[in-house]
Amino acid sequence: MSGCAPSDAGTEGKAAGVTQGPVALSGAGPETGGATSGTDSPEAPGTEAGDASSRPGHGSAPGPGPGPGPGPGPGHGPGPGPRASVAAPPAPTEAESASGPASGPGDGATRSGSESTAARDLPGLGPMTLALVPAGTRQALIVTGEDMDSTVSTAQLYERADTGWRPGAVWPARNALNGWTPDHHSGDLRSPIGVFTLTAAGGFLSDPGTELPYDHSQGFFVSGTGFEGEPLEGSFDHVVAIDYNRQPGTSPLDWTRPLGPGKGGGIWLHVDHGGPTQGCVTLTRTHMRELLRALDPDLRPVVVMGDADSLSS
């Protein structure tokens, strides 16, 4: 498997094919570390206050929801997938591989010192990566890994105004167990490097207020433990599908793989469970909810993800 998504065995999440999704150097799907019932081994962090009573028991995850073991689904667990070569984005946009600044995971968000200053180009991205960002995109989440083999990274959301790209809060993040790859394949336990569109969300918990299509389903339930023995339950309470080897705009639980199962899929942005993923990128519960509320489909959001050196090329 390559993603963390539940019940998508062998895949990480829907990935947009070369002609179906945003252009990306590599793709990945939600993968979770060591999950036993998730698609690409989803990882599940704890429940939110007041939600524990509504969460199913710690048994296997129902249906296509993420599972504790390396099952198909978001990249929290062992769910590597071959790096996808530049994949064509869905109709309106083309997302291409890129990566953002990396930093260790953490709970508190810190503000960029130049938040009030707009930059002409997205910081940390080289000409090759910038060329992959769709011309119509006005919102970009840059996830930057410390190096090719690092499991920790830094995420920052940017929005383009008339004067340039304005930076938002900086959030600690995690990525796959073996780091990053420009050629993701199922089971390689690496997160795909590239630029990918963000067109759908979902989760075990109800919609926190996002404008993206949101699939509220028990299929996102996950249990078990991750690569470091951490509990995965709650990891898929909120997810955003990364359009790598999947059909853009459909539920994160849609396991269609335009590039074939060998390229993995089920690569998601989801709740951090305290350890590396199978291919997904994770943020703390609070930051995932902030991200969901901030993403605006009218701005054609993308995620630019990878290690710092790759993204600066």
SS summary, helix count: 3
Q: Helix coverage percent of residues?
A: under 10%
Encode the helix/strand succession as letters: EEEEHEEEEEEEEEEEHEH
Strand content: 15-25%
* Outline type: globular
Largest sheet: 6 strands, mixed
Structural class: mainly beta
Strand order of the largest sheet: 4-7-6-5-16-10
Q: Over the alpha carbons, how many angstroms does the gyration radius reach?
A: 16 Å
Distance between the termini: 29 Å
* DSSP summary, beta strand count: 16
Whole-number average pLDDT?
75
Low-confidence segments, given as residue ranges, are 8-116
Explain this structure to me?
The protein has 313 residues and is mainly β. Helix content is 6%, strand content 21%. Strands 4-7-6-5-16-10 form a 6-stranded mixed β-sheet. Strands 12-11-13-14-15 form a 5-stranded mixed β-sheet. It has a two-stranded parallel ribbon with strand order 2-3. It is globular and about 45 Å long. The chain starts with 14 loop residues before the first strand and ends with a helix.
